[in-house]
Amino acid sequence: MDPYHKEDVPSSLCFFTSLVLVVQGLGLLSVILVSVWMGNYLGGFAWSEDPDRQFNYHPVFMVIGMIFLYSDSILAYRVFRNVNKLYVKILHASLHVGALIFAAVGLKAVFDFHNAKSIPNLYSLHSWIGLSTVILFGLQWVCGFVAFLFPKLSYGLRTRYMSQHVFWGLTILAMAVGAALTGIMEKAWFMNFAKDSKFKYSALPSEGVVINCLGVSIIVMAIIVFYLVTRPEYKRPRGPEEEEHIQLSNN
Question: What domains does the chain contain, in order, with CATH numbers?
Answer without folding.
Answer: 13-250 (1.20.120.1770)
